[in-house]
Amino acid sequence: MIKKGVYAASISIFNEDNSLNIGATIDHAVSIIKSGLHGVFFFGSTGQSQLISISEKKEFIAKIAGHKLKKQFFLGTGCNSLKENIEIIKYAKEYDFRDFLIMPPAYYKGNTDEGISNFYSSLIKAVPKIKIILYNFEKLSGYKFSKEFVTKLVDAYPDNIIGCKDSSYNLFENLKLPNFLIFPGSEAKLLKGLELGCAGCISAVTNVTHSLARKVFDDFEKKETQSVNDKLIEVRETFDQYNLISALHSFLSIKDIKYKKVLPPLILLSKEQQKELINKLNNLKFIFDKNLAA
What is the rounded distance in angstroms from the CA atom of residue 138 to the CA atom of residue 169? Predict the structure, then answer.
């Protein structure tokens, strides 16, 4: 079961034929865990999950089931279909995955609390022992969880609804529930969240800020003076100026071309944008290689 910590919404790596490169995706996750993260979530929005087939997701789940870092691997579903969500969850449960990061179905606007409640209730009815981390991201799903609605869900399903990734940032400052873990969706909110009683963060950009974010977390836990939080926030805010998936893949591809592939309709940053990003990160002294922008 997930605990307090710093997690990444891990990126996915693809082959030239647009198929999921399972080995490279796992290797990336292992490398960022070794760089400081407590764990990773596969098949979130950063991992382009909505664009990956059910069959590839199943193949991936079977592959990571026997990995030595399995306890640090967590899953999203990235499906709109209720049946496909249930299918993926039941399949993963066969391999003893228990915690799932689940966003409400996207596409339709104007979703109601009643409709969203029906969605999660249906998941729990189909998989009674599921543990759900709600994914609050109005920008992608078109629905924003309220403090009152989350409280009702938790009251109705206290054994199932165990936490929330808050990427709309309307919950992490004021939602307080016992035994309920709240993870802001940005490391820029990490320290503030910890000070308010949050559990850490689940972020796209910790794919690259892993070490900085972990130090902020550890210094808070040890009650030591914060020395890198300002830099962590500046780096995150720099990436926030671009499409995050495009920026992360463009940044990482400078060091390794395997990151160059993203699935349509996503694209990499333009050469001008990439150079601009690298120069900004260089100015913050955050880069793999001082000469990358040359």
Answer: 10
Q: Is 225 exposed, middle or buried (0-12, 13-18, 19+ CB in 10 A)?
A: exposed
The 10s digit of each residue's pLDDT in 188-239 is 999 999 999 999 999 999 999 999 999 999 999 999 999 999 999 999 999 9
Are 77 and 132 contacting, i.e. CB atoms less than 8 angstroms apart?
A: no
Nearest-angstrom CA–CA distance, 154 and 117: 11
Backbone phi and psi for residue 16, each to the nearest 5 degrees, phi listed first: -60, -25
CB 143 within 8 A of CB 109: no
* Distance of alpha carbon 259 from alpha carbon 29, whole angstroms: 13
Query: What is the model's pTM?
Result: 0.96
Distance CA 135, CA 168 (A): 9
Reduce the DSSP state of residue 47 to 3 states and report it. Answer: coil
Give the whole-angstrom CA distance, residue 224 versus residue 107: 45
Residue in the structure block whose two tokens are 């299918």:
87
Tally the C-alpha atoms within 13 A of residue 156's C-alpha that lie toward its C-beta: 14
54-64 vs 22-34: helix crossing angle, rounded to 10: 50
**104 DSSP assignment:** P
Q: Is 9 left (phi over 0), alpha (psi -120 to 50) or beta?
A: beta
Q: Which residues contact 271 (CB under 8 A, 6 or more apart)?
A: none
Type and span of the H or E element at 292: none
- The phi, psi pair for 137, rounded to 5°, reads -145, 80
DSSP designation for 240: T
Task: Walk across the sheet containing 5-9 and list its strands.
Answer: 181-184, 161-166, 131-136, 99-102, 73-76, 39-42, 5-9, 200-203
Residue 134 DSSP SS3: strand
